[in-house]
Structure formats: structure tokens, C-alpha cells
Design a protein that fits this description.
The complex is a heterodimer of chains A (647) and B (204). Chain A is mainly α and 647 residues long. Chain A contains 19 helices and 6 strands. Classes of the chains: A mainly alpha (647), B mainly alpha (204). The interface between A and B is large, with 75 and 60 residues.
Chain lengths: 647, 204
């Protein structure tokens, strides 16, 4: 067999979405209709939308939980909830928002948008993409089965020992949570692998790393971190489960174990994770502001470096969650300094965004309002973070509502607001229709006012000494008014969010038809139809700048991107480029729709359920199931160019 | 002014180290390596922090009577797989079959010797803090070795069926990467559990 059968020079053609070539590609890439297609699809657009919808479902669940306990906290000495119910409710709220909404929703946007931003036909590992979605969904259901059986997490989202150990927490609550988190970790890790490989292999020819859109930088940075730190929390929960069921002593102080080890492993994960759930959202703002201010982002390179820099520093700040645990002074000083230095890259980004708005011609549309609102909330959340980075003020503020205010300014301000802005921006690409502007304004202003009304007073209740995580409080402590205001604000906020759901429902039916580039934006996703065809791009574009669609109006453009490019229609094919320069390196054979990822995910679900029930025979059986399904998934296939046969 | 698009002759499908799966395996290795870093972090945390958990390691530095030869066996299996991979790159399916077969045999021997090492211990995972660390970490590694052996067996089956040749052998490289990783991790565990107590890390 000669090596010439393994190589080919690709043909060239012009971009035309009504050509015979487009029809041929459509029949190659299309997912079959009906249930079979639904269960087996590996199309990143379908999977991305599922991620977003599922994450929003968990956001709504977490929101309802919050509203219930805000009613409980509105007045002193309330008894709507028992202390046990309150514990489960606030813990489940945190778990839902942080693990089941904040990260997956960003993955969803990136899974949908990355190949389009990169000029690619799919993610690098489409079957892994399907698998990570199914494991996200199934692990979320796993945790919520516990919640609905009355066995939800009950020790806060960071779940400190010794309260989480079996002695103090004998029910299955902690087992559902521990196993559910290990399960979810598989999804997060698999997703991280997929993003990194996609960035290294799937960029359109000519897209050297300095030409990647910011959303690539943000999501990439976050997922490199995920790859390295998610194992810490997976291990932490595994050790907890062993302590509870195998009699180990990792956290058992009586036998020499260290409860502090839990905190170290948790925050080695937890703090980089905070950046992992905000950096992609911040990069949405960077890309979005460029579109809505009608100019490229100011200081693009500096912002990209600040993104990476934040993450690098983010690995060295975990102990600032543990300032009050009696660590050595040396350790306090180091981690305090690192926590404060992190202000610098954040400031670089803030000034770049402000300069973009100031020197641009802003379009005051709903997505711009959400991105601008983010700027305000980011500064407030950043300053309160800066305050708790100082050891003396942290000792005063830790475990009070001040910290609750901080985390909500960070997570709602830097995740939810940009995500909703991103939804307004890219909804036309997802669906082919625009979201309604009038409803959008109600949506923004109610959420913005409700949010600040609800969460700003928490700073004050914290300064007044109100501890976090108490199920009620006595009157006469000066906390009554602030808590009532907080509850009213949170309901206004939720009411504003309702407008988003109404807007989506209305616009899906009767929204204005968008066309391929409704915002007149500059990046590649806007060069294809809305919604994009299954194969994304009829020919592979060649990229010569950061804003291929704006080159005519930017005088400084050095080159011209081209939509005359590679055809790649000998089966499902994509172009693989090298990691740095974006030079074509290989023609990749892409996998067809397959049920194996779902089968593997289901076998994994049975595995965790069997561990929970301690049915060891079923554990063994499910491991066998996982091995068999992985074999079915990964066995070499001639049509994927994996076997020694002529292509 | 349209740019001229070059049309170089490109490899098609799974060739060399360019397919996404190869990069994916490197990422998987990075994340699994992190788990071992955290396991060893936990070990050293207990080894250096004063605590009431008895001697650490329990019963003094563990014997190397089995673990040292076993380490060499695992290294030999890596060499075998490397040699087989080198063979298929030159088109020798026979050399690949032998390399994979020997790798599997050495891997299985490692697992059996490790089982004996476990059986020889006077403590269990639940007896004391050291036991918890020892059995959890080596158990985690053993699970990885088992996964690696299964991977080698799959490759062996595919190789016997003639799926690979001098060009189409990325699958072999991907499997070999994982196997070398499992062996390299063992070296760090061997240092941590068997050598570091002899260097004075621990509590007596």
C-alpha cells in the first residue's frame, strides 16, 4: 500500500449556499429527523443549544429555591421553612447555580459558537461533545433526584467537613452530592479536553492565534484551568465518600486526619473555578462591545493577556477562602498579596472596555445594555472582592452577608448579565429571528434595578454582622429593613428574568427575520446563514485578520480574508490546522451521528447509582457496560480514516 | 484583491500525531496526572503536618522487596510497547503484535505482584491514616494500570486483525502515550511511598 492513497490536495470553490455542493454537504452532515436523530446527533449546534436550555432550566430551579428562602428571610422569626429544609434549599441553590448553571451555560454558548467563530465544521471531538452533554444532564438529574427525595446537599456548596462526614450527616444527602459531583466532573473535564483540542486543531486556515476572537481566548483559558483543577474537587469528594463508606480517615481528626485538607483541595479547585465561570463571560463582553460600539476592541492583545494572566494568578489565591482557619502568617501574606495583585489584569480589561465604549459609536440595544450593566456590577463585585482580599477586613467580613453580596455581584454581575447579553446577541444566529427590543428593555431594567435593590443591601447586613446561612434571625438586631428590601429586590429581579422567557417564547414565533448578519458584525459566525446549515460553511474560509467581515472599512487591515476556499466533500470532512499559525495540516474525517456516547453516559449513570445503593454486583456490571460501550465508540472505522485501507 | 489559496497535498484521516484524538489523549493525561498530584499533595500534607495518626508510614518505611522488581517490570512493559510502536511505523505488524503482547503480559504481572504487595500489608484501608493513603493512591494507580491493559488488549485485537500499517498507526501511538503515562506516574508514587520515608519524610 503506497502512501499516496493517504493524501489529497483539497479542491477549491466559491461560497454559495444554494449550490449543488451545498446540497451534497447538507445530505452528508444532516442529522436524521425524529427520536433517533435526537438521541444520536453529534452536531455542535444542537448540542450547544441543549446545554444552554438545560443550564437555564437549572437556573430557574435555583432561582425558585432562592425566592422561597428569601420569603423565609424577609421578616425576623419566620417559620415558613424548618432549619433542615432551609439548609437543603440554600445548599441546592448554590449547587444548581454554580455547578449546573454557571459553567454549563458558558460551555453551551462556546460549543455552539466556537466552530462558527473558528470557521470550522464542528468541534474537534464531536462524539465526546455529545457525551459531555449527556453526562451533564444525567449528573444534574442524579443530584436533583436526591433533592426531590429529600436528600439534597445540606452543607453549603463547599460542603465543609466535619459536618459532611457520616458521624454528623448520616443520611444519603452527602452521598448524592459527592457522587453527583464526581459524575459532573467527568462532563466538565471532557468538555475542557474538547475545547483545547478544538482550539489547537480546528481553526480556519490563516487564523493564527493572534487572530482568534476573544471568546476563544476566554473559554480556552477557563478550560485549561478546568483540566488542571477539576481533578482536585473530584478527588476531594471521592475521599469524602471513602471516609463515609470505606472507613478511611482522611478528614477524621480523631485518627490524625485533617479537616483542613478538605478546604485546601476544595479551594485549589474552587478559586480557579470562579475565574473559569467568569472569564468566558467577560470575553463575550469583549466581543459583544466591539459589535455594539462599531469598532474593534481597544487593546485586544492586552485584554487577551489579562485573561490568561488572571487565570495564572488565580491558581495562587485559593487560601484567601481560609484566612480565618489559623494558617501561618507567611501563608496569609502570600495569598493576600496574590489576591490583591489580581486587581491589575481586571483593571486592564475594565479600562479597555471603557475605552471601547468611549471611542466607539454605541448602539443602545438590549445586548449593549446588558454588557454595559455588567461593567458597573463588575466594578462593585471587584471592589468587594478586593476588600475581602485584605486579611484584617476578611476576618471581620468572612461568613457574613457581605461575602454573600460579593459572590452574587460576581456570579450574577459577571456571569448572568453577560450571558443574557450574549443570548440577545446570538439568538438571531441560533434561530434566524431577532429578540424583541421593547420586551428586552423591560427585561434589562427590571433585572438591573431588582438586582441592585436585592443584593446591594446585603453588603450592609453583612457589615451589621448578619452571618450567612442562618435560617432566621431575631428582631431588634437592625437587620429587618435590609432583609425586607433584599427580598423585594430579588422578586423584582426574578420578574425581570420572566421577561426574558416571554421574549424568547414570543420571538421564536414572530420575531423579526434576522438574515445572516443582523448586527453588521465582523467575525466569521456572521458570514454563514442564520441558523447555520448543518455543515456550517460551504467552503472553508481563509482568515487574514481578527474581523474578516470588517476588512473593507478598517484602513489598517493588512490582508484580506477569503470565502473562496477548500471544498472537502469526500464524506464528512474538516480541515485540521497546526496549533499556532493556523496552517493547513490534515484533512480530518469527522464522525457520523452515533448512539455510543449516550450508551456510555447511561452506563456511567448506572455506575454512580449502583455506588450510591452499594449494589456491588451492579457496580461491576456497569463497569463492564462502560468498557463495552467505549470499545464500540472508539473501535477504528474505515470511513474515519483510522484503518489500513485505501481512503 | 483575492488572495491565492494554496492547495498543498494533505494527509487524510488518522496519520501521525495530527488527529484530534492524539491531542485529546495528551489532555486526558494532563488531567489524570493532576489527580495524582493532588493525591501526593495529600500524602505529603499528612507526612509533614504533626498529627495524632500514629507513625507515618505505619510500621516504618515499607519494604521494597516486591515493589522494586515490580517497578522494573512496569518499565519493561513500557519498553515493549515502545518497541512495538517503532515496528509498525516501519511497517512490521509482527513487531507490533509482539510489543503489545509483551506489554500486556508485563502489565498483568505488575497487577498480580501489586495484589501480593497489598495482601502482605498488616493494615487495611480503614486501619489508620497511612493505610487510607496507601491503599487509595496505589488503588487509584492500579485502576489506571487496568484501564491501560484493557487499552493494550483492544490494540492487540485490532493489530491481529491487520488494522494498522506504516501510515495508519495513530491509535497505537495514542494507546502507547497512555501506557507510558501510567508507568511514569508509578515512578513518582514509588518515590513518594517507598523512597521518601527513607529520606526522612514522615513521622515516627
Amino acid at each position: 500500500m503506497t502512501s499516496s492513497e493517504y493524501t489529497r490536495a483539497p479542491d477549491l470553490a466559491d461560497t454559495a449556499y444554494d449550490s449543488p455542493l451545498a446540497e451534497r454537504l447538507n445530505s452528508l452532515w444532516e442529522t436524521s429527523p425524529g427520536l433517533h436523530g435526537f438521541l444520536t446527533t453529534v452536531d455542535h449546534k444542537e448540542i450547544g443549544l441543549r446545554y444552554i436550555i438545560t443550564a437555564f432550566a437549572f437556573l430557574i430551579l435555583g432561582g425558585i429555591e432562592a425566592l422561597i428562602f428569601r420569603v423565609q428571610l424577609a421578616v425576623p422569626n419566620a417559620n415558613l421553612l424548618t432549619p433542615t429544609e432551609y439548609n437543603e434549599l440554600f445548599s441546592t441553590h448554590g449547587v444548581s447555580m454554580i455547578f449546573l448553571y454557571a459553567s454549563p451555560v458558558l460551555s453551551g454558548f462556546s460549543v455552539y459558537l466556537w466552530p462558527l467563530l473558528l470557521g470550522a465544521r464542528d468541534m474537534a471531538l464531536p462524539r465526546l461533545n455529545a457525551f459531555t452533554y449527556w453526562t451533564f444532564l444525567l449528573s444534574g438529574i442524579f443530584i436533583y433526584v436526591g433533592v426531590f427525595m429529600g436528600y439534597g446537599p445540606n452543607d453549603g456548596w463547599f460542603n465543609y467537613v466535619p459536618y459532611a462526614t457520616r458521624t454528623y450527616n448520616p443520611g444519603p444527602n452527602q452521598d448524592f452530592y459527592a457522587l453527583g459531583m464526581i459524575f459532573l466532573g467527568i462532563s466538565t473535564t471532557g468538555g475542557a479536553v474538547n475545547f483545547i483540542v478544538t482550539m489547537l486543531r480546528m481553526r480556519a486556515p490563516g487564523m493564527s492565534i493572534n487572530r482568534m476572537p476573544m471568546l476563544i481566548w476566554g473559554t480556552l483559558t477557563a478550560n485549561v484551568a478546568n483540566l488542571l483543577v477539576v481533578p482536585a474537587v473530584r478527588l476531594d469528594f471521592f475521599l469524602l465518600w471513602l471516609d463515609r463508606h470505606a472507613g478511611t480517615h482522611f478528614f477524621d481528626a480523631g485518627a490524625g486526619g485533617q479537616p483542613l485538607l478538605w478546604q485546601h483541595l476544595f479551594w485549589i479547585f474552587g478559586h480557579p473555578w470562579v475565574y473559569a465561570i467568569v472569564l468566558p463571560a467577560m470575553s463575550m463582553v469583549s466581543d459583544g462591545l466591539a459589535v455594539f460600539c462599531r469598532r474593534p476592541l481597544v487593546g485586544f492583545t492586552a485584554v487577551a493577556l489579562a485573561t490568561v494572566g488572571t487565570m495564572v494568578l488565580g491558581f495562587g489565591v485559593w487560601t484567601h477562602h481560609m484566612f480565618s482557619t489559623g494558617l501561618p502568617v507567611m501563608s496569609l501574606s502570600f495569598f493576600s498579596a496574590a489576591s490583591i495583585i489580581i486587581v491589575l489584569p481586571s483593571a486592564v480589561s475594565i479600562f479597555a472596555w471603557l475605552a471601547t465604549v468611549y471611542t466607539g459609536r454605541p448602539m443602545y440595544v438590549t445586548p449593549f445594555l446588558f454588557f454595559a450593566g455588567f461593567l458597573v456590577l463588575f466594578v462593585i463585585g471587584g471592589v468587594s472582592g478586593f476588600m475581602t482580599g485584605f486579611v484584617p477586613s476578611d476576618w471581620q467580613l468572612t461568613d457574613t452577608y457581605f461575602v454573600v453580596a460579593h459572590i452574587h455581584y460576581v456570579l450574577i454581575g459577571i456571569n448572568v448579565f453577560p450571558v443574557i447579553g450574549a443570548l440577545y446577541t446570538w439568538f438571531p444566529k441560533f434561530t434566524g429571528r431577532m429578540l424583541d427590543e421593547r420586551l428586552g428593555r423591560w427585561n434589562f431594567w427590571l433585572m438591573f434595578i431588582g438586582f441592585n435593590l436585592g443584593f446591594f443591601p446585603m453588603h450592609i447586613s453583612g457589615l451589621l454582622g448578619m452571618p450567612r446561612r442562618i435560617y432566621t434571625y431575631s428582631d431588634g438586631l437592625g437587620w429587618d429593613t435590609v432583609n425586607m428590601i433584599t427580598t423585594i429586590g430579588s422578586f423584582i429581579f426574578a420578574f425581570g428574568f420572566l421577561f426574558l422567557l416571554i421574549n424568547v417564547a414570543v420571538s421564536l414565533r414572530s420575531g423579526r427575520i434576522a438574515g445572516s448578519n443582523p448586527w453588521d458584525a465582523g467575525t466569521l459566525e456572521w458570514s454563514t446563514t442564520s441558523p447555520p446549515p448543518p455543515y456550517n460553511f460551504v467552503v472553508i474560509p481563509t482568515v487574514a485578520s481578527r474581523n474578516p467581515l470588517w476588512e473593507d472599512r478598517i484602513p489598517a487591515s493588512v490582508g484580506h480574508s477569503s470565502f473562496h476556499g477548500y471544498v472537502l466533500d469526500h464524506g464528512k470532512e474538516a480541515i485540521g490546522t497546526d496549533g499556532i499559525d493556523g496552517q493547513p495540516a490534515v484533512i480530518i474525517k469527522m464522525p457520523h451521528d452515533t448512539g455510543w456516547p449516550l450508551v456510555t453516559a447511561l452506563a456511567t449513570t448506572v455506575f454512580f447509582a449502583a455506588l450510591l445503593l452499594e449494589w456491588w454486583w451492579l457496580v461491576a456490571l456497569s463497569v463492564l457496560g462502560i468498557i463495552v460501550s467505549l470499545y464500540g465508540w472508539l473501535a477504528p472505522r474505515p470511513q474515519l480514516g483510522q484503518m489500513a485501507e485505501p481512503v | 484583491m483575492e488572495r491565492v489559496i494554496p492547495t498543498p497535498s494533505l494527509p487524510v484521516g488518522s496519520i501521525g500525531s495530527s488527529p484530534p484524538g492524539y491531542v485529546g489523549m495528551i489532555c486526558l493525561i494532563l488531567t489524570e496526572a493532576s489527580v495524582f498530584v493532588y493525591l501526593e499533595f495529600s500524602y505529603y500534607y499528612f507526612a509533614v503536618e504533626p498529627h495524632a495518626g500514629g507513625t507515618f508510614p505505619a510500621g516504618g518505611p515499607p519494604s521494597m522487596q516486591l515493589s522494586l522488581p515490580n517497578t522494573i517490570i512496569l518499565l519493561l512493559s513500557s519498553v515493549a510497547v515502545w518497541w512495538g510502536e517503532r515496528g509498525i511505523r516501519q511497517g512490521s505488524v509482527r513487531q507490533l503484535n509482539w510489543g503489545l503482547g509483551l506489554g500486556i503480559v508485563f502489565g498483568l504481572i505488575f497487577i498480580m505482584v501489586q495484589a501480593k504487595e497489598w495482601a502482605n500489608k498488616t493494615f487495611t484501608i480503614a486501619s489508620n491514616l497511612y493505610g487510607s493513603n496507601f491503599f487509595t493512591t496505589t488503588g487509584f494507580h492500579l485502576a489506571h494500570v487496568s484501564a491501560g491493559v484493557l487499552m493494550l488488549i483492544a490494540l492487540f485485537i485490532w493489530s491481529l486483525r491487520g488494522y494498522f500499517d506504516n501510515m495508519r498507526n495513530t491509535y497505537v501511538s495514542i494507546g502507547a502515550l497512555y501506557w507510558h503515562f501510567v508507568d511514569a506516574v508509578w515512578l513518582t508514587l514509588f518515590f513518594t511511598f517507598y523512597l521518601s520515608p527513607r529520606l526522612g519524610v514522615g513521622q515516627s
